[in-house]
């Protein structure tokens, strides 16, 4: 599993729903803070990034105090 990458190909007309430039900017910010995999490249209709073995979160996970942390923001 060391040489595995994910290649995401954007669906037809999905750019109408998702700003792809902002998505890549967000990906890079998250990556810089250790919260996203390594982004290897982008291309006209997709991107390629590092595969990280894991588990998708479900409601029982996000309710677990060891995973979820409530942050109160000033008003």
Layout of strands and helices, then pairs:
Blueprint: E1 5-9, H1 20-32, E2 39-43, E3 46-50, H2 59-62
Antiparallel strand pairs: 1-3, 2-3
Protein name: ethanolamine kinase
Organism: Bos mutus (wild yak)
Pathway: Phospholipid metabolism; phosphatidylethanolamine biosynthesis; phosphatidylethanolamine from ethanolamine: step 1/3
Structure description:
One of its GO terms (molecular function) is ethanolamine kinase activity. This is ethanolamine kinase. The chain is an alpha+beta fold and 75 residues long. It has one domain (5-62). It has helices spanning 20-32, 59-62, and strands at 5-9, 39-43, 46-50. A three-stranded antiparallel sheet has the order 1-3-2, with helices on one face. Strand 2 (39-43) and strand 3 form a beta hairpin. The termini are far apart.
Brief overview:
The chain has 75 residues and is α+β, with helices and mostly antiparallel strands. It is built from two helices and three strands, in the order βαββα.
| Rounded mean pLDDT score | 87
User: Whole-number radius of gyration?
Assistant: 16 Å
Order of helices and strands: EHEEH
Order of strands, main sheet, comes to 1-3-2
Let me know the largest β-sheet: 3 strands, antiparallel
The first-to-last residue Cα distance is 45 Å
Percent range for β-strand residues: 15-25%
Structural class: alpha+beta
Number of beta strands: 3
Give the proportion of residues in helices.
Answer: 10-25%
Please, how many domains?
A: 1
Count of helices?
2
Shape: extended
Poorly predicted sequence stretches spanning 5 or more consecutive residues: none
EC number: 2.7.1.82
Family: Belongs to the choline/ethanolamine kinase family.
Organism: Bos mutus
Enzyme class: transferase
């Amino acid at each position: 599993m060391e040489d595995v990458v994910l290649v995401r190909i954007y669906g037809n007309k999905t750019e109408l729903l998702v700003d792809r430039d902002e998505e890549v900017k967000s990906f890079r910010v998250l990556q810089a803070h250790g919260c996203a995999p390594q982004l290897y490249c982008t291309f006209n209709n997709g991107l390629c990034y590092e595969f990280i073995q894991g588990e998708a979160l479900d409601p029982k996970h996000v309710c677990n105090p060891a995973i979820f942390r409530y942050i109160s923001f000033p008003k």
